[in-house]
Amino acid sequence: MAEDYRPMWKELGLDLDTHDALLKAVGEMYGAAFLSQKNRPAGMAYLDFVMSEVHGLRIKELMDAKKQGRKVIGSYCVYVPEELVLAVDGVSVGLCAGAEFAFDQAEKYLPRTTCSLIKAAFGFKLARVCPYVEASDIIVGENTCDGKKKAYEIMKGIIPSFYVIDLPQMKSETGRGLLRAEYAALAKKLEEISGKKITANSLKNGIAIVNAKRKAVNRVMALRSADPAPISGLDALLINQVFFYDDPVRFTESVNKIADELEERVKKKQGAVPAGTPRVLVSGCPMAVPNWKVPGIVETSGAVIVGEELCTGERGHHQLTEESGKTVDEMIDRITNRYFDIHCAVFTPNPTRLGRIREMSEQYNAQGVIDYTLQYCQPYQIEGGVIADELKKNGTPVLRIDTDYSAGDTEQIRTRVQAFLEQIKK
Question: Residue 136 has what pLDDT?
Fold first, then answer.
C-alpha cells in the first residue's frame, strides 16, 4: 500500500496489531497463489491492484462515500440484492469470511462443530480486523442454512445494526411470495436508513448496473470453454470474489477489458496452461477471500479449473434480472424471480442444481467434477453425495473434498487430487 491507512483503521476501531498480522498473512498467501502463476492475462494487474489495496484504498472510498451521505450495506450472501442497495444510492460490500481467524473467540459463542464460513464471520468481527464490517452502516444477513439462522440471532447482540431477511426453503409459489415480501421489506429498510426513496428510475438504474457487471463476468467465464483455457481457475475465482466488493462500474469496465484480452487469446490459441491440460469443474460451498486452498492445490497438481458452480461463481452472476419492469413493484417482482432461481442447497428438493452442473460440465468441456464442501455444512454435504451419485451414473468422474480453512489437510488433499487427475486422463 502506497498510503498509510492506519489512522483510518484506528478510526474504524480495528485492532491494529492483529490487523497488521492478518494483512501480512493474506499478502503472502496471495503472492504464493497468484503472482507465481505463468501466462496470466495482463488485465489481471487490475485485480492485483485491488487486492493490494483491499483494506486500503477501497475502504477509503467507502469512508468518503459515507461522508457524502451514502450508506454502506454489508452482506454475506448472494441472496441480498445489490440492485436494491444501488437504488438508494448505497454501496454494497461482501464481508470477510474466508480465513481461519480468531476461531477461539468465535467458539465462545458457537459450537466447535460449526462450519468455517460462519465461524470466520464471527472471528473477523470479534477480533476487529475487517474494515468492511466496521464501515458498514447496516449488515444484512439471510436465513439460508440452520447454522446461519441461529448464529445470526447471536450476531444481532454483537452488531446492533444487523438485519435479517427470511428465505423460503421450497421452490413453490408460496416460497416465491415469501421472498417477494422479504425483498419489499428490505427495500423499505434501506429507504429508512438512507433517507432516500426508491423510485422507478433509481431501481431501473440499479438493475442495469448489476446486470452490466454480470454480463462482463459472463463474457470471461464463457471463454473458458476454449482449449487451451485462456485464464486459470484461480484468476477466474478472483474475479468472482472481487465482484462482491469493488466499485461496480469500475469493476465492469476492468472485467470487460479482461474479456477483450481473452477473446484475442482464444483466437491465437494462447492459454494460461498448455492445450490438453486436464479440465475440472468445481461445485459446492462458496470460497470467500482469502480461501484459495483447494483451487491452488488443483492447479498446482497439473489441472485447470474451467468453471465454478459456487456462490463465488456462477450463482452470483449467471442469471440476469429482467429489465422489463416499469414500476417499482414490477421491478421487485423481476428481482425476486432472478434470485428465486438461484439453486442453493438449502432448497428442497433442488433438482435444478444437478441440471446446472451437467450443463456447465458440457459447456466448459470438463473431464471431471470436484465437489467442494466445508466441514459441518450439512446442506451441501448431503446434497453433494446425491449429485455425485447421479453424475457418476452418466460416466462423469467426481472427487468429493470435505475440508475447512486450515492448511492441515493440504497434502492429503493434494494426493487425492493427483490420483483423481490420473483417473480422468485415462
Answer: 98
In this prediction, what percent of the chain has a pLDDT beyond 70?
100
pTM: 0.97
Q: pLDDT digits over 227-272, tens only?
A: 999 999 999 999 999 999 999 999 999 999 999 999 999 999 999 9
Strand 162-165 to strand 138-142: parallel, antiparallel, or no bridges (unpaired)? parallel
The answer to whether residues 129 and 101 touch, using CB atoms and an 8 Å cutoff, is: yes
Q: 3-state DSSP call for residue 94?
A: strand
- Residue 421's nearest CA partner among 297, 322, 323 is 297
What is the rounded average pLDDT of the residues 60-76?
Answer: 98
The residues near 255 (Cβ < 8 Å, ≥ 6 apart) are 213, 216, 217, 219, 220, 239
Taking each helix axis from N to C end, the angle separating 293-300 and 410-425, rounded to the nearest 10 degrees, works out to 50
Q: Is the peptide bond before 295 cis (omega within 30 degrees of 0)?
A: no
Instruction: Answer whether 245's CB lies under 8 Å from 316's CB.
Output: no
What is residue 321's three-state secondary structure?
A: coil
Q: What is the largest CA-CA distance in the chain?
A: 62
- Report DSSP letters for 172-220, one per residue: SHHHHHHHHHHHHHHHHHHHHHHT----HHHHHHHHHHHHHHHHHHHHH
Q: How many C-beta neighbours within 10 Å does residue 329 have?
A: 11
Position 293, amino acid: K
Instruction: Report the side by side order of strands in the sheet with 72-75.
Output: 91-94, 72-75, 138-142, 162-165
Residue bearing cell 466499485: 247
Asked if 337 and 260 count as a contact pair (C-beta separation under 8 A), the reply is no
